[in-house]
Glycine betaine/L-proline transport ATP-binding protein ProV (uncultured Truepera sp), 352 residues
Amino acid sequence: MSQTALELKNVCKLYGPHAARSLERYRATGRLGPGSSMGVWEVSLTIPRGKTSVLMGLSGSGKSTLLRLLNGLHQPTAGSIRVGGTELSTLKRQQLVRLRRKTFSGMVFQGFALLPHRTALGNVAFGLELQRVKKRERLARAHTALELVGLGGHEHRYPRDLSGGMQQRLGLARALTLEGDILLMDEPFSALDPITRRELQAELLRLQERVQKTIVLVTHDMEEALKLGDQIALLKEGRVQQVGTPEEIVSRPANAYVAAFVAGVDRAALLTASSIMAAPTLAEHPARQHPAHEHWVSPETSLADVLRITSQNTATLSVLSAEGQLLGTITPQNVLAALAANPPNTQLKRSL
Ligand SMILES: Nc1ncnc2c1ncn2[C@@H]1O[C@H](COP(=O)(O)OP(=O)(O)O)[C@@H](O)[C@H]1O
Ligand SMILES: [Mg+2]
């Protein structure tokens, strides 16, 4: 199976009448006509299978538009969208409905929209019912999902009898049980209080480790994006500013806009030895299996840990692979330079 779940090429979406004509006009003049508004513009993006990709940006930046384009709820004004290799625009209506049912786990919104007149078990099973899974299997899978999110024993309670946090877990269980590899989530945690929100984020990470779905999650919260995303695409006014891992976005922002977004992020928790090390010098060539430096760390060691080691001993650190190969070196200057990119008085607020 291909490692790519979804692929977008030069996707544009304009809202309003005569979108195709508006698009030509916008290309030619850089102006939108009356009644026309920008959804997304020239988005090219690859969504890897089995990972969590985050669409991040301020309100109005085009995140929800992009999400709806992915499962064909919106048609692009221009460009190509492939789902598992299938070009969406070639599908007839019925084929699209079938693909949506088979490939997508539906779309999760704020609050998860639980059904008040169904029990916890009934709520989780409901999505499967829509997907026409047989009753026996439905109930078995719903049971397993409830156990998974720590709601075993609460199968027969109604949403109103569950705490807010438990309701959200229920919603998460329902989403993750559904058939279909791709789960689209539009600001699922935005309406929650900070503590419940952190709990749910942790829950999602834990569940995702097991189910390894392709998740595309929309958020306007950078901390959430960095915490949940294997890949983050940062949008501004419908345009992608940068796509990268959390570490890439924080250590190498593509432009001033991205830099401003990540300015407050605690780099010490996010960056690792591999992103702050210097390449080995010739004398320390990787072929030499026994580097001269006696202090070493693995490439995944966090900057916070490197900082702690360096503060106790200012010797140069070697960064060694699992096989003992020298990948690079870290001097105290490297550590300071990495930290200095943080603005002064940044709170160390990212709790991992
Ligand atoms: N149905 C619509 N009709 C017209 N304009 C829309 C519609 N939906 C979204 N837009 C516009 O598209 C832009 C992106 O919106 P949206 O994708 O909802 O952003 P986000 O989810 O990032 O807040 C906004 O300027 C918004 O006003
Ligand atoms: Mg939105």
Observations:
- The chain has two domains: 4-263, 268-340.
- The chain is about 40% helix and 20% strand.
- The longest strand covers residues 4-15.
- The pocket of adenosine-5'-diphosphate (ligand 1) is lined by residues 15, 37, 39, 57, 59-65 (CB under 6 Å).
